[in-house]
Amino acid sequence: MILVLPVDLDDDLGRKTGVRTPVIGRDAVEEAAVKLATADPEDSDVNVLFQAINAYEDLLADPTVDEEVAVAAVTGVNEGDVKANRAVGEEVDTVLAALSTGEEVRAIVITDGAQDESVLPVIRSRVPLDGVRRVVVRQAQDLESIYYTMKQVLSDPETRGTILIPLGVLLLVYPFVVIAGMLDLPGAVVFGALSTLLGLYSLFQGLGLEETIDGTAERVRNSLYAGRVTIVTYLVAATLLVIGGVQGVETLQAVNSGDFSITQQAAVFVHAAVQWAAAAGITSSLGQVTDEYLAERFRWRYLNAPFYVVAIAIVLYGLSGYFLPRVPAAGLAPLTLTDLAVALTAGTLLGVLSTLTFAVAESRLSDGGGDGEAGVV
To answer: What residues form the membrane-spanning segments (predicted)?
Structure first.
């Protein structure tokens, strides 16, 4: 028996038409091909299915072929070559079991390209191959088809931007360098600027940052329209963090930090900046709590955030202070071991007490007021 076997490795047939595979029999394959052509006329697997039907009928009409002929379409999955090849192998097994013939089965595989042909070793391990036919649409070789393809690609806004923007930047390099020379400007600066723009555009496209930036801008716009307090508090928090970083660097410069170890330099920086970082954390957390309250999603446990920030700041302040170098001119003096113990204890107690306090408050208000939100709204 000769089995004509069209292969659709990425399962366009199943995904686009809902047809269950494998598809066995000439009429069933033709019906599946018509459904796929209706769903997506440009899919190359349509040609594979019709080519399989054509090959099947040619074999039936060939007087030299004195054995049975069958046709069956098999598909893989759209999840990578390994899973797709395994799926094709399982469907080939199903087809061979369904044929129920006592004759030796040989297959003619029909594909539309090299990617689908990667499954040939899997098929060959189950049934001998009489040949492999790759379907190539003749019109695709014509100049008319190339023109149509280019026109279709350039009519798509996304593809047009991806192709034409880098090409436009490259074409502008020469005229801009010429203009820069006429104006006595260094051409290297213009070339560097255009190259930078092209590089940034390529990075944005390659890393998919365009969607991320668009999404962030949309969220910021929605937050402004909705009156989100966090817009302001996050901006203030970022400013406070910058001030803290500047304060830490200035303190390092003031104490001539090059004479100290890395640990002492880190202690100076943290000790000078930690209060600013704590203020930033408290500001941003209070803004978030306010927004949750206004959105009627408030929970008492949310109030832990500013207390946790203060507790962590106290611990960091104590630790960094303990490792400070002694610099009388800059007003720096290390904390004693007792001071460190007090700071660590205070930070721990503050975190534990805030957790217990708000847990008890939320539990009691939830029991008495419904679901925890009604207790404060």
So the answer is: 161-179, 185-204, 225-246, 266-290, 302-320, 340-361
